[in-house]
Design goal:
The protein is built from 18 helices and 14 strands. The chain is of the alpha/beta class and about 475 residues long.
């Protein structure tokens, strides 16, 4: 369905006016770039959270992303606006992006796997209510920007059709393929933009109307159009395939450690095969972020719902391997440090799930820290972009007395028995490890969960080094 009942192909106004419901990691940057690249299009980003909107309107944005500040400052006040007046934005706009949270359900049917579409449905009902309040509402194009299960567009259309009788509408899918840390570059030069819509004349018109916005700066051949279900499933599948590559190389990292092979050499050798390619083959402590685990669990749930248990189990193993890698990392710390870390200070370098972001959603650091807490270790944590309050929130107030959150990596490492590198921040490659070694308890250990340090150099300094996919390197 995903459309209104009207069979007449209606023209949309030009230039369009655009709004986005949700000012988070996806909605904010996407709309900012769209406003910059389309200065004649008014773009309004809305959110219920007044503090978040206030931050978008300030010099201290609510999220960190390289290049975002400059883009926002160029377009803000010209044709980019941040507002809590959601109803006004819906009323004046033709294209309404819905970029609200779709977390994994924590209770009820599908708990732990299915997507919680509470906010998505509330957004649909809010749009319908605004449309009902006006007797002469222009046609609306509602765009799924959140990651949603296949056929969610039908649910949106059903809510709209039942609740909104006087407005012609189309529901499209326009999934995001952003990587945090490079999101702005991804938006300026995307590999592809995908727009899916109903296979009807009006659906085709709506798809082209939205696609033409992207064609302002994205080459036409990279703007792909599909049916709704293909667009929705493509997003889940893309993240599943990327996560699968990480879990695959991490599984091989364990075999490398057992056999004496070097996982970095193995990854490079298979990556030069053009059929495989080099991306997402870097062994690590595990993947994190808001998308990979959530989307794979969603995919698993869908497969089970459609009677495909073997397919569900196949994809679930990607998550199982990621969980095992984090546990294996923590276990290696304990076993290398004489089977006890009770009362020992361990410096945690990096808490974000990847460099160039302050995002900690599903970061491996949370699980690793909690495992170390279970062994009664004391932790000193340093991350250049993650706020103190966020770390406390992620680890729980009950461990406050076991954490030192530092603003200087050298202070975090001083007096420590071991260092754990959990985020691949560039600054960690440039640290003075001789200085750090002198300040630490001996023997001094480094557990590199991102394979960013020079093992031989640190070994020569006096460190015992364990790096993912490499045999334990004892101090020389």
């Amino acid at each position: 369905m995903a459309t209104s009942s009207s069979s007449t192909v209606k023209a949309y106004p030009y230039p369009p006016k655009i709004c986005c419901l949700g000012a988070g990691y996806v909605g904010g940057p996407t709309m900012a770039v769209m406003a910059k690249m389309c200065p004649d299009i008014k773009v309004t980003v809305t959110d219920l959270n007044e503090r978040r909107i206030a931050a978008w309107n300030s010099s201290s944005l609510p999220i960190y992303e390289p290049g975002l500040q400059e883009v926002v400052e160029e377009a803000r006040g010209r044709n980019l606006f941040f507002s809590t007046d959601i109803d006004a934005a819906i009323q004046e706009c033709t294209i309404i992006f819905v970029s609200v949270a779709t977390p994994t359900k924590t209770s009820g049917i599908g708990a732990g796997e299915a997507a919680d579409l509470t906010y998505w449905e509330l957004a649909a009902r809010r749009i319908a209510a605004v449309c009902n309040a006006s007797s002469n509402m222009s046609p609306k194009i509602i765009v799924e920007k959140s990651t949603v299960p296949v056929r969610t567009a039908d649910a949106m259309a059903a809510v709209m059709a039942a609740s909104c009788k006087g407005t012609d509408f189309q529901v499209l899918s326009n999934p995001e393929f952003l990587a945090e840390g490079t999101a702005i570059d991804d938006l300026f030069k995307p590999d592809r933009v995908l727009v899916g819509g109903p296979v009807t004349p009006q659906g085709h018109a709506a798809v082209q109307y939205l696609a033409d916005v992207y064609r302002r700066w994205v080459p036409t051949e990279q703007v792909l159009t599909t049916n709704l279900w293909s667009a929705e499933l493509t997003k889940l599948t893309a993240n599943a395939f990327l996560a699968q590559r990480i879990s695959s190389i991490n599984s091989i990292s364990a075999l490398c450690e057992a056999t004496g092979a070097n996982v970095s050499e193995v990854a490079y050798a298979i990556g030069v095969d053009t059929r495989i390619g080099p991306k997402f083959l870097k062994a690590s402590v595990g993947f994190g972020g808001s998308c990979f685990q959530k989307d794979i669990l969603n995919l698993v749930y869908l497969c089970r719902q459609f009677g495909l248990p073997e397919v569900a189990e196949y994809w679930h193993q990607v998550i199982a391997m990621n969980d095992w890698q984090k546990k294996r990392f923590a276990t290696n710390i304990v076993s290398s440090m004489f089977n006890t870390i009770s009362g020992k200070k361990i410096a945690i370098l990096g808490f974000a799930f990847k460099k160039d972001t302050g995002d900690t959603r599903e970061t491996p650091a949370i699980d690793v820290c909690k495992m170390l807490f279970a062994e009664k270790a004391n932790l000193a944590i340093y991350d250049p972009k993650v706020a103190r309050e966020q770390i406390y929130s992620d680890l729980g107030k009950e461990v406050i007395d076991k954490i030192e959150i530092e603003t200087d990596p050298y202070i975090a490492c001083s007096g420590a028995h071991a260092i754990c590198i959990l985020t691949e921040w560039d600054e960690f490659k440039a640290l003075d490890y001789k200085r750090i070694y002198k300040s630490m308890q001996k023997p001094a250990f480094i557990f590199d969960g991102r394979n960013i340090i020079d093992i031989s150099e640190c070994q020569a300094i006096g460190f015992t080094v364990w790096s993912v996919g490499h045999a334990l390197a004892l101090a020389k």
